[in-house]
Design brief:
Deoxyribonuclease I, Chain A, about 20% strand, about 20% helix, globular, alpha+beta, 6 helices
């Protein structure tokens, strides 16, 4: 299985997976963990919370006169749980301390860019998160906690001039800015922490509203290690550094659409994107596994 080979090559202590389907008994995640264990990469601690994808709203969110379609769900999904998130960890997860912010309403975000003509009945039910926003405390060997702030945002495309997806993508990242500032009805997460996930927005290239992601990358409470791949790549017409790209799209080229941002007080000892040159034996396996390339950051535990 290509995914198992890629994750084994990363050999991380903690892995955030995005785009993995959710099921009630976590059978898919368990099967993946068992395959990794058979390859001598055991992850005894796992977490998968129900994503917003595919959860029916009963409303016509895309305004095409029909309800019950994938774009009428809380997050785009052909079925409940399509394309969720999961955590695999060698460190114990403090399950009692996990916080799931995924039910937070888009309209309740301070400064939300929700389209101004959004009907009141939609504002009353539309959640901000597409896949999810989680705070996941990991138990460190000495008993302390390292909190993962994980999310999976919608792509800022596949909409019309109202730019609904572009606005939502922006606000899914802005959520963290508001949380760290103490502007939400949740206690700001304590350091040390690591904010990570699929932003689905390149800070330099492609479509989208970049204000929130630019602010997050420069946030004084966080640090951006700028993980880099080793493939000699270039994307004509783009302005961003191709070595920072984490995904390759047909017709667009490479984009940096994932981040790992440790809190400012953590010591970063290494980072990278698993994107080797084409003559590397792993290159073909990576292409089979996903259009996305895994990124990694090494930190010294506090």
């Amino acid at each position: 299985m290509a995914v198992v080979q890629v994750l084994a090559a990363v050999h991380a202590d903690v892995i955030l997976l995005t785009g993995i389907d959710f099921d009630l008994r976590a059978e898919a995640l368990t099967a993946l963990a068992e395959a990794l264990s058979a390859a001598d990469h055991a992850y005894p601690y796992r977490l998968a919370l129900r994503p917003n994808t595919g959860i029916a709203t009963g409303l016509d969110l895309d305004g095409n006169g029909t309800t019950g379609e994938p774009r009428d769900a809380q997050g785009y999904g052909r079925f409940a749980g399509e394309g969720g998130m999961a955590v695999l960890s060698r460190l114990p997860i403090d399950l009692a301390g996990v916080q799931d912010y995924s039910a937070f309403l888009w309209a309740d975000l301070p400064g939300a860019l929700i389209p101004p003509d959004t009907p009141s009945e939609v504002r009353a039910v539309q959640r901000l998160s597409t896949g999810g926003h989680w705070a996941v405390p990991l138990i460190l060997p000495e008993g302390g906690r390292l909190t993962l702030l994980a999310y999976y945002a919608t792509p800022p495309v596949f909409d019309g001039p109202e730019d609904r997806n572009g606005r939502r993508n922006h606000d899914e990242t802005a959520f963290w800015l508001r949380l760290l500032a103490g502007d939400l009805p949740f206690r700001p997460p304590p350091a040390p922490l690591v904010l990570l996930g699929q932003t689905n927005l390149d800070p330099a290239d492609g479509e989208g509203r970049r204000e929130a992601i630019s602010a997050l990358l420069l946030h004084p409470a966080l640090q951006d290690p700028r993980p880099r791949g080793t493939a000699p790549r270039s994307d004509p017409g783009q302005t961003g550094d191709a070595a920072l790209d984490t995904a390759l799209y047909d017709g667009l080229g490479g984009l940096r659409v994932e981040v790992i941002l440790p809190s400012a007080g953590l010591k970063v000892t290494g980072s990278g994107v698993l994107w080797p040159p084409e003559d590397d034996p792993l290159a073909g396996t990576l292409a089979l596994a996903s259009r996305h390339r895994p990124l990694w950051v090494d930190i010294a535990l506090p």
